[in-house]
Amino acid sequence: MKPPSSVVGHENAIIYPKGAERVDYEGELAIVIKSKMKDVPEDKALEHIWGLSCFNDVTERAFVSKNPLLLTLSKGFDTFGPIGPYLVTDLDPNNLNIKTYLNGQVMQSDNTKNCVFSVQKILHYLSTCMTLYPGDIVATGTPKGIAPMQPGDVVEVEIEGLGKLRNRVEQPVN
Length: 174
Description:
Layout: E1 7-8, E2 14-15, E3 23-24, E4 27-33, E5 49-56, E6 59-60, H1 61-66, H2 71-75, E7 81-88, E8 97-102, E9 105-111, H3 119-129, E10 137-139, E11 148-149, E12 154-159, E13 163-170
Parallel strand pairs: 1-7, 2-13
Antiparallel strand pairs: 3-6, 3-11, 4-5, 4-10, 5-7, 8-9, 8-12, 12-13
């Protein structure tokens, strides 16, 4: 889960937090919810999708290594949820090529058909645990190839038909 303060757009900076030990990129597919979802059957889940976008599930990995219960904190820093550049409808979310670049070098390359769970299964399961509302963002998980990024790096998440999300990693202003 990510708080609203973590969300930033295309070309906005990812701020490397003071005291962070290892900040990783995680290129993922973002699913933006169109209508309220509670206990939605798997075969009806796709009807609740407003659109799809590129997402970078930025994570302070050292937090998780020290204590897995800190997962929400490790993913919830300000600017740790870049999304964009577009919201696209009418694509099959379960068959899209996805690539993540670090400073122009391909670091992750896969297809959403290889995700552990289909988008329908993810949305169904989440809707049995919590109510999803219009505008909520669900991310699918990341392919292998995550690695650390540093201030000055540029991270891009490209998904077939959705464009390329681009963000620079920067030091805090203070």
